[in-house]
Amino acid sequence: MGKIILLILLLFFNNTFSNDEIEIKADQFTYDKNSTRIYATGNVEIIDKFFKLNADKVFLNNDSNVISASDNVKIYNKTDGTFLRAKKIVADKNLENAIIQDKYLYIPTSENLVKKNYIRIAAKKVERRDQYWEKLDNGIFTACDICKKEGSDKFENPLVQVKAKKIIHDKKEQMVKFYDSYLDVKGKSIFYLPYFSVASPLVKRKAGFIAPSYKQNYYFGFSVDIPYYIPISDYQDVTIQPKFSQKKNPALYIEHRKNFRNGEIITDFSGTIENQKVNITKEDKKRGHIRSHSKFDINENTYLDLKLQRVTDRNYLNTYRYKNTDILETSFKLATHHNRNFYSLESYAIQDLRANIIRETKPKIFPLFKFDLNSASQMNKINLNTKGEFVSLHRTKGTETNKFFINQNLLYPTILVDGTSAEVGIHLNAGFYNINKYDNPANGSFEYSKNRINAYPVFSLKLNKPYFKSSRKYVNIIEPNIMFIKSNKKAFNRFIPDENNINNFQLDYFDIFNINRLSGFDRFDSQSRVDYGIKFKKKSINNDFVSEISVAQSYQMERQSYMQENSGISKKFSDFVGNIKIQPSSLVNISSTFSLDQEKFSLKNAYSSLIFTVNKNQLSISNIHSPVILNETGTTEIEGKNQYSISYNHQISEFWSFTSSTTFDKKDEIKYNNINSKIKYEDECVGLSFSWKRKYTHNPEDPTSNSFIFLFSLKEIMDGDI
Fold it and tell me: pTM value?
């Protein structure tokens, strides 16, 4: 029989609508003369504004407002994307109140390029009231995929599922409550709970416990972190994480996040009271930290950035593993730009947690005002760039400086007839300084208060001309570069404090073609020089990868007088510097930035990495190599480094993975910094990991020790980062 389409006006929906329509399609209809009772059979489809129902048989009674469907019942909810299968359902027309037999509910959780994942809830019988409350008898809850057995139409048990005699799903409270429940693994019950509750899978954010983490090390013994998540509003939440340990008093860590229409604030702080034993015992010592970072867009051109970072003592963050860093920064930054012009007002206070650092000598900076003004960038015309800063540096011990420095650049870019790119530059620099408590190395005297002016010009000329050659698979580019710099003796004025610690300077490839290659703003290389280099690129036409080899060097008209011997520019000819990025095949990736001694051709500085990728294995090796840094007296200021980092990742199977890494220094012998290993299982419904960390540290509270961490996560029940 051909399909018949019948439109029925509903009496009302949720007491708010009176003219909603449902459309019924079926192979066959039976109904009375007033169309108050309708019996539809064969491929029945009911389409409503909020749902779509399919079944083999449907009975609709408009007088009693009841709809009954049986045999192959399928209901798709257009509002939340859920899909329900059932043997039989009796409900009102809006499905707000219902009795459902043999229910299977599919709730979408995530979608990737391969497939959509679902939470599955099954029950023998379901009672629904007012659409917000459901009771499931003999219910099963799982987020795992359910697969058929090989060579059979029967389904396997999911890896993990929760069975319960009764499940209450309260959508108003956004909770799912389980009574007389068992945790099953591969169909076998391994754990019983008389009652527990979790957040409703229909909500994205709900207060509750997050998967705990368990650790064991020298300082704490056995310890556990038990985080609890609280969503305060749609735009604000907090995580409270107490730490309980075998050897120490409890500690509390709190992280707060709040989004605004134009910005955000993220804050974490912690605290504990304990007897601290470093050199001497300090009883009932209050220890803790606070870190807060705020970012706000004032308007489309202006933003505000605020940081507050402080800790009670140097070892605390490292010992408690609260996102440890060596430098804590408290700062204020208000920045804006208009067209090509940039302005900022800033302030900084640093807390340095490194050993052997005299903290009283670290400067506090307030205020720092910077501007960068630029004309339109045009060829064959003079382009203007003006940079300036006013800064005031304060110290508990040491030199204090107030300065205003301005840098005026006049640049003329052009293309010569033969295709050479050229840029002529004139750079005018001037600074005004008020200097207090300065032990002047230039004249050997202590200057309690001094005002100084420094002004000098610098001239530059840049030239480069790339040469191209194309083949069927590659484009080859050879690009020679040369730059002439005419400097000035006043550019490196030793009567003015060096706040940028030029003694730490080491020449590398990314410095060499900078007009001012020294760090900072107001101190310039005082020697005139020529920089020259060549770059070779090979670009694949089939993909975006570019192999590149670059080498460069400088020649200075005179030897440097005040740079340390191994700076790379202490002699007339500088060290050779280079950059390599090569991918000989899809399996190997090599990169290195390096410098070579200009006389011995021995390696001085190098930042190198080598990555092998074969099938499901990846091996990464990186190296940092640097020489000893000497101060002006020739004594060691910073130790040399030859540090390796090695990591290995192996995808054992679809769900199992193994990672291991280590960092160590190699000088006369190997000196390990850390060793880490982790084995992890993660699928769509469950995750677990076991990791071992051995950390070699100078922290007297937590010396070299082993940490064992086990993490467990049940998706949609007890989620956690594994």
Answer: 0.75
